[in-house]
Amino acid sequence: MTRIFLVLLFISLSGFGLARQNSPKNDFEAALEAIDREDQEAAFFHLENWLKSYPQDALAHWYMGQVYESFPGENTPFALEYYNQAINLNPQLASAYFSRGRIFLQMERFEAAEKDFLTFQNLPKGETNQIFFEKNSTQAGVSGIFTLQGNLSAKVFYHLGLCQMGMENYEKANEYFDQAIEIRPEPDYLTEKSQALLSLDRSNEAESVLITALEIDPDHFLAQERLALIRGKNPEELIEPLNIAVKNKPNEPQVWKKRAYYFLERENWKLAERDLKEALALDNQDAELYLYLGTIASRQQEWAQAEKYYSEGLFLDETNTQIILARGQARYQQSKLEEALADFIQLIGIDPTLPTAYYHRGITLLRMKRNQEACENLQLAANWGMEAAQEVIKKACQD
C-alpha cells in the first residue's frame, strides 16, 4: 500500500491587510502568535473570533483548516470545509489548493487532488518570505522549514506522483517522482519511485533506487522492507528495530502501535491485537487503536465485537469516516440494517461525494427491499467510478 506522507503547513506573511492593522494586536495576529508557539487551541479561539467579524477573510479560513488538521483525531471534513471556503473567497490563494489537494489525496480522490496540485503549480506563490513549517505527525514541534519557491516544488511533484500511483498510471508517477528527486533527493521520494518501478516490472532499477534511499537514511523502514523483498530476504528480520523500540520505551503507546501495524500488514491478528491492547492501556483516547482492533475482529468475522470497538472509537472521534464506514459494514453483516443505514447516511452527510458511502447505502437499501432508493444510490456510486456498484445495479434497477 502506498504510503502517503502528509505535511501540516503554516505560512508567515509580512502583511495582513488593512482590517488586521486596526489594533495593536487583533485576533488574527494573536492566532498567528499562537500557531508559532504551537498552541492550536488558542489559535482556534482567536481565528473563530476573527472570522465572526471578517467572514470574507480567505487566509483566515485557510489557517483555520490548518488548525483543524493539527488537532488529534479525524478532523478532515472540517479542514476541507475551510479550504473550500478559502478558495471560494479567493481563487488565487495558492496555499489553499495545496492543502486541499493533500486532503483529497488522503481521501483517495486522486483526480481531484491532482487538479488542485496542478492549480497550485500555476498560481503565483507570493513573496519569497512566505515560509511553510513542516510538521511530522510522529514528532513534536517543527521538523523542517521551506518556502513556496523552494523545497515545496519538490513536494508538489511528489504528491502528483502519489496521485498517479493511485490512478495506476505508473509511468507518469515515475516521471513526477524523478522531478521531485532532481530538486531534492528525499528518501520518501526515492522509496515511492521504487514502488512505481516495481509496478512496471523494473525490479533492478527499483533495487538501485532503494539503495540510494538507504544511503541517505539507513533507518528508513519502508525502504528496508522493500529492498528485503526484492532481494528475496525474510522481511520478518525487519521487526527487530520495532522490538528494540518496545523494549527501550515500553511506556510509549506509539511504539506498540507501530509494531501492531507491522503485524496487521502481515495478518498476524493475535500479535497485532496484543500490541494494540498494550497501546490502549497507555492511551485510551486514540480512536485509531479502536479502528485497528475492530479491523482485526472484522477479519475474523467477529462482527459484534468489531461493532463494539468501532463504537468506542466513534465516541472519541464522531466524524471519523473510516470508523463510521467500518461500523456500518459490521452492522450490515449482522443484518442490523436500520443501524447500518444510519451509519451510511451519516457518512454521506460528512462527505457527500464519497462513492463507497452511496454504494453501501445502496446495497443496504436493496436488502431492505427499497429498490428504487437502492437504484439511485448505486447509480451515483457507479457514476463516481465505483465498479462494484455496476454488478448490482441491474438487480436494484429492474422494474
Describe the structure.
The protein has 399 residues and is mainly α. It has a domain at 11-149: Tetratricopeptide repeat domain (Serine Threonine Protein Phosphatase 5, Tetratricopeptide repeat, Alpha Horseshoe). The protein is built from 21 helices and 3 strands. The protein has a 3-stranded antiparallel β-sheet with strand order 1-2-3, with no helix packed on it. The chain is globular, with a radius of gyration of 23 Å. Mean pLDDT is 83; it is low at 1-24 and 127-147.
Q: What's the SSE blueprint?
A:
Blueprint: E1 11-12, H1 27-36, H2 40-53, H3 58-70, H4 76-89, H5 94-106, H6 110-122, E2 131-134, E3 144-147, H7 152-166, H8 170-183, H9 187-199, H10 203-216, H11 221-230, H12 240-248, H13 253-265, H14 269-282, H15 287-299, H16 303-316, H17 321-333, H18 337-350, H19 355-367, H20 371-383, H21 387-397
Antiparallel strand pairs: 1-2, 2-3
Helix pairs in contact: 1-2, 2-3, 3-4, 4-5, 5-6, 6-7, 7-8, 7-9, 8-9, 9-10, 10-11, 12-13, 13-14, 14-15, 15-16, 15-17, 16-17, 17-18, 18-19, 19-20, 19-21, 20-21
Ranges where pLDDT stays below 50 over 5 or more residues in a row are: 1-24, 127-147
Query: Quick one: biggest sheet?
Result: 3 strands, antiparallel
Assembly of the depicted chains:
single chain
**Which geometry do the CA atoms define?**
globular
Question: How much of the polypeptide forms β-strand, as a percent range?
Answer: under 5%
Task: Give the mean pLDDT.
Answer: 83
Going by helix content, strand content and strand pairing, the class is: mainly alpha
CATH architecture of the domain at 11-149: Alpha Horseshoe
Overall helicity: 55-70%
**What name does the CATH topology of the domain at 11-149 carry?**
Serine Threonine Protein Phosphatase 5, Tetratricopeptide repeat
DSSP E strands, number = 3
Pfam families: TPR_1, TPR_11, TPR_16, TPR_8
TPR repeats: 154-187, 287-320, 321-354
Protein name: Tetratricopeptide repeat protein
Signal peptide: 1-19
